[in-house]
Design brief:
297 residues; mainly alpha; 16 helices; 1% strand
Length: 297
């Protein structure tokens, strides 16, 4: 049984309930996520006890806004369309990830999940092949180099892959130019106050490895086939990770039915659980499993 057969087995009534969108769950979840960011940011700003130890924690809270940006590309976190778009753009600004470009990049990933030559997420060569490559990926430095280059290229009108419709390209270029202007202004502000460095630049550098470790489990070591049950993994984890990742550890479920909002994914999981082919008991387990078989040179 493939994912299409599993989804076809869900009644019309249950499917309608699963795909119903609402502003309230997303706004409450967003308030909680932003609350954590504000709490750690305030402690760092005030120089509270062991404030420096909160820098990577603050960074993790920031970089996991990626999960919300990812969800917003589907316009599912909120029922109000413009709310999805502007929240996605704000998250993209934090992550140097042009949201309008990312929307089409991610939708192409959904259309061709784990298919070499078609899935743009495989453009970085897939999983690392050695220990050195693994730790280089986990450092997050290749990510920052890639997204900075991508943002500048888009601002110049370059880097428009064929999966980006021509009608969307002017908006993508405008967004990238606005982002570049904001980043330049932010860098200039460092001459007057170091706040941006301590509350954004350094924390996201320290927090990015956690996101890299998380993302490798989504499709890593899954089959290069079109069946979502075979090319995507659901990872069982604790409530904290599920909260920060907006329930995206239920990743097979998300790919099988992308129109289901984050808050309904646990319900979809209960339906799909007997049919899942790739699962992991945790992100630490997955990365240990991956490292165990990688050559050290």
């Amino acid at each position: 049984m493939d994912h299409r057969a599993v989804i076809a087995g869900i009644s019309a009534k249950d499917r309608a309930a699963l795909t119903t969108r609402s502003d309230a769950p997303g706004l409450w979840h967003l308030a909680g996520h932003l609350g954590l960011i504000c709490l750690t940011g305030a402690w760092i700003s005030l120089g509270g006890t062991l404030w420096w130890a909160l820098l990577p924690v603050h960074g993790v809270f920031l970089v996991f806004l990626f999960a919300l940006a990812h969800e917003a590309t589907h316009r599912t976190p909120f029922a109000t369309p413009w709310l999805n778009d502007w929240v996605g753009r704000a998250c993209g600004l934090v992550l140097i990830l042009p949201f309008e470009w990312f929307r089409y990049f991610h939708l192409a990933h959904h259309r061709h999940t784990n298919i070499p030559g078609k899935d743009p997420e495989l453009g970085n060569g897939g999983l690392p092949k050695t220990w050195r490559a693994y730790w280089w990926r986990v450092s997050g430095l290749p990510y920052w180099a890639q997204v900075i280059q991508q943002t500048v290229a888009l601002a110049l009108g370059w880097g428009m892959e064929e999966y980006i419709p021509r009608s969307a390209r002017p908006l993508i270029i405008r967004e990238a130019r606005v982002m570049v202007a904001i980043y330049i202004a932010g860098l200039l502000s460092l001459f007057f106050t170091p706040a941006l460095f301590w509350l954004w630049i350094l924390p996201v550098l320290l927090g990015q490895p956690a996101l890299r470790l998380y993302l490798m489990a989504e499709h890593g070591r899954c089959a290069f086939v079109a069946d979502i049950l075979d090319n995507t993994r659901t990872t069982f984890t604790n409530r904290i990770v599920r909260f920060l990742a907006w329930n995206m550890p239920y990743h097979t479920e998300h790919h099988a039915l992308p129109s289901v909002p984050f808050h309904a994914l646990p319900r979809l999981h209960r339906i799909m659980a007997p049919h899942l082919k790739h699962t992991a008991p945790g992100y630490r387990w997955f990365n240990r499993w991956l490292l165990r078989d990688l050559p050290r040179a």
